Amino acid sequence: MKKPHFWPISMLTAVLIYYLLEKFYDLWKTGIWPPQLPVLLVILTLSLGILIFIVSYLTSKSLWNDLNLFKKKPILGLALLLLLVLSAVVFGISFFSLLASL
Description:
The chain has 102 residues and is mainly alpha-helical. It has helices at 7-30, 37-58, 61-66, 69-72, 74-101. 82% of the residues lie in helices and 0% in strands. Helix 2 (37-58) packs antiparallel against helix 5 (74-101). It is elongated, with a radius of gyration of 17 Å.
C-alpha cells in the first residue's frame, strides 16, 4: 500500500502560516494586540503539536503497512483516534478564533 502524499496539506499550512505572519506584522506595526492572543497561540501550538505527533505515528511505516493496532489494542487505537479528532477540533476552533481576533 502506498503512503499518502501530504504536499497539499503542507502547501495549505504554508499559506495559512504566511497569512498569520502577515497579520502579526500588521499588528506589530500598529502596536495594538488583542488580549486573548497569547492564550490562543499557546492552545494553537499545543493542538498542532498533538496533531503532528498522532498523524506521524499513525502514518509510520510499520503501522501503515499492517494497521494491527486496532486489532491487537483496540482501546489504544480508539484513544488515538479520539485524541486526533479532539485536537483537530481544538486546533480549528483556536485557529478561527485567532483569525477573528486579528
